[in-house]
Prior knowledge:
Elements: H1 2-6, H2 15-24, E1 35-39, H3 41-46, H4 50-59, E2 65-69, H5 75-84, E3 95-96, E4 111-112, H6 130-140, E5 145-149, H7 153-168, E6 177-181, H8 187-199, E7 205-209, E8 224-227, H9 235-239
Parallel strand pairs: 1-2, 5-7, 5-8, 6-7
Antiparallel strand pairs: 3-4
Amino acid sequence: xxFKTNGGKIAIGTPGRIIxxxxxxxxxxxxxxxxxxxxxxxxxxxxxxxxxxxxxxxFLPKQRRTGLFSATQTTETQELARAGxxxxxxxxxxxxxxxxxxxxxxxxxxxxATPSTLTNMFAVCEYDNRPELLVAFIQNHSSEKIIVFCxxxxxxxxxxxxxxxxxxxxxVAKKFTVVGFHGKMVPKKRKALYQRFVAVESTGAVMFCxxxxxxxxxxxxxxxxxxxxxxxxxxFFVHR
Length: 240
């Protein structure tokens, strides 16, 4: 009722839902729109929303501010910027190279793709030996904050249950926090688990998750990120 009477100040939705609202809701008037934002623009394009986004562009007012946000710059996002924006300006946040960085250095710009203080390590082992190495790693760092990226939701559930059992058998401290986080959870539960993990300060915690945790959330004071399974897309390594 409030929306019908006074309209809205902010509209948040997927491209398909925005188009649906425009077509079906008379009150959804975009003539006075001032700012249009596409968050995770590269992912929206990967998911096949390019035609829908171009359709949204077609009924937006020409005089507006438009922002495309993405942690990775792809050819598709650059093409979208050229097609949908007037006089687009690219703003990049980079870490300056100081000469002794361990990150991957761009020879032209002198910037690094990953922070210079980041240390990358890897272990070569048989597939069946990965759980054993993971258990040993977490036991040796049980006072620290760890994120473990898994390939599937089922894998997240399995390791979450496994480490809860370890707490019962004193294989890790009882105060050690174990969280499973994946896309099949309802948003309310996912939010509660996220807040629980963020709130941990000194007792140690591990969050098993899929790539749903690689974008759009901020988790401070993480000591280790373990990639139990390599990302399907190399760009997701940067997001993780």
